[in-house]
Each structure stands twice: as structure tokens, then as C-alpha cells.
Amino acid sequence: MKRAPERLYAGIYHCVHGKIREGETAWQAALREMKEETGLKPSRFWVLDGTSSFYEAREDRMNIVPVFAAEVKTDKIIFGKEHCSYEWLPVEEAVEKVAWENHKKSLQILHRMMSEGFKDKKWLEISLND
Prior knowledge:
This protein has helices at about 25-40, 90-95, 100-115; strands at about 1-5, 45-55, 60-70, 85. It is α+β, with helices and mostly antiparallel strands and about 130 residues long.
């Protein structure tokens, strides 16, 4: 997804992400952010075998966060004020397009895990029925 021109990080491409609100788990925050940023609701949801780490200078804080993957039944995105466009791309093109190294690594991890049949590894799946 491409950031809107009037937003922080204008014009860059990135994966869905956001902050965890008080009382949320990391995976609940990921689902909320996915809905807010794309309008999508996953039919299945997994934790990936990797984390994303980054430094926030404003808070002088190092963050280490889990990374998630979702299966959706549509490719139509309804984005809000944060974004102005999106593309569905093969992984190699997506890795080249996203701006942040952590997003590149996450896409590569997802691609590797998909090629290894991670959907059959039930311990990685997060139940959406709870």
C-alpha cells in the first residue's frame, strides 16, 4: 500500500502495521489495523516465524514485534486516509517496492514459509473464532 501524500512517510510502499492499543494483544491489534487500513477481514490468520524490530527516536525505544499473515477471500481493498493506492504483486516485486528492510524480510519469510506448507502447521494459526 502506498502512503498518502499528506501523511508521514508520504509516497512510500509498506505492509499493514500499527500500534497496539491498551487492552489489545498483538494479534488483535494486527486484525484491527488490517481492517482499518484495508477494509479486509481474514478467513485465516497466522503468526510468522520471525519478528520485526525497529527504533523509535521520539520515544528512545527499541521495539520487537511479531509478524502476522492473513488469508482473505477478496482482493479488493478499501483504504482510509493513510493510503492512496495499492498493488497486489509477486513477492519478488513486493520486496523491491516496500521501503523498510523489516517489511522486505517479513515478505521473504512469508514466501519461504508458504513454500514449506506452513498452512498445515496448526500451531502457527491463530483462531478467529475466539
